[in-house]
Amino acid sequence: MLIPADAIQERLAVMARQIDEDYADLDDTLLLVGVLKGAFVIMADLARYISIPNSVDFMAVSSYGSSTRSSGVVRILKDLDTEIEGRHVLIVEDIIDSGLTLDYLVHNLESRGPASVEIVTLLAKPDRRRVEMPVRYIGFEVPDVFVVGYGLDFDERYRNLSCIATLKPEVYGEA
Ligand code: IMP
Ligand code: MG
Known about the structure:
Blueprint: H1 5-22, E1 30-36, H2 40-49, E2 54-63, E3 74-78, E4 88-96, H3 100-110, E5 116-124, E6 137-141, E7 147-148, E8 165-166, H4 169-172
Bound molecules: inosinic acid (IMP) and magnesium ion.
The site of magnesium ion has 3 residues, from loops.
């Protein structure tokens, strides 16, 4: 176990209070855009910790590559249901690894004319970053290890863990 469940919940509550403050004066609802599948857990918790009016939408993307390494080639499997022109958009992510997926998403969403696009992520692996982008809210920085739980999977397993845990290298065969 790397991050226990109660530490995640405490951190999300603090991040939500910051988000409440930063977006206090919106005329419109804040649009939370979750990146499926991994963000479904943080989305459910964060949307409830945030007190200001918010709406929720999801995108599904696939990045080609092996199960533990992202390639940067992104395909949209499910697009937003909502038009985001003029809206304040907060992308909700489980983890930023190389940053390639989010870099693509940010540019894609920005081309639709939103009022703003910011990012909130539970986890970030600073050592692995290949594209620099401003990430407004980061829950925890983690070392370069493969993690599962709280939405994050290995081969579609472990998403339902309430904590963040590491996998032994022999499990994913890249030791
Ligand atoms: P990036 O494009 O390299 O930033 O990768 C982002 C996506 O890769 C995340 O949304 C996850 O789905 C996946 N990913 C990256 N690192 C991990 C990890 O340690 N465990 C599980 N999934 C990961
Ligand atoms: Mg993901």
